[in-house]
Amino acid sequence: MLTLTQELYDRIVEHARKDHPDEACGVVAGPAGTGRPERFVPMLNAARSPTFYEFDSKDLLALYREMDDRDEEPVIVYHSHTATEAYPSRTDVTYANEPGAHYVLVSTADTDGLGEFQFRSYRIVDGVITEEEVQVVAAY
């Protein structure tokens, strides 16, 4: 189960809506070994595409160095789908290289930024997709 604060939930959804019609992407880092998402890190979709996301390699390297310096790890890796449901694509599974991370997908399909959306979380390990419950809390 993924547990995250209402603030983090809202920030992920806001980023997905703001970048629509392009896919949004980012990371929520947390203290290593805790599994607790704390630090919201929105990233630039270097592909600037409505059907694909790609972290800028320099930005990603800088983020991993910063997380290492802060004794953090990626707890959530998130991105949006702009035209399909919030379910990992084959490409998403191929790029899922953090077995300990929660992979969050927000679908902004058929929304105008004010309507409904999907927020779902998965574990993706060795190509196997497992959906998990999402619990939103006021604070930890």
TrEMBL record:
Alphabetical list of CDD domains matching this protein: MPN_like
Residue ranges of every copy of the MPN domain listed in the record: 2-128
Entry keyword set: Hydrolase, Metal-binding, Metalloprotease, Protease, Zinc
Its domain of life reads Bacteria
Q: Which Pfam families match?
A: Prok-JAB
Sorted alphabetically, which PANTHER family does this protein's record hold? CYSO-CYSTEINE PEPTIDASE
Q: What is this protein called?
A: M67 family metallopeptidase
To which species is this protein native? Streptomyces antimicrobicus
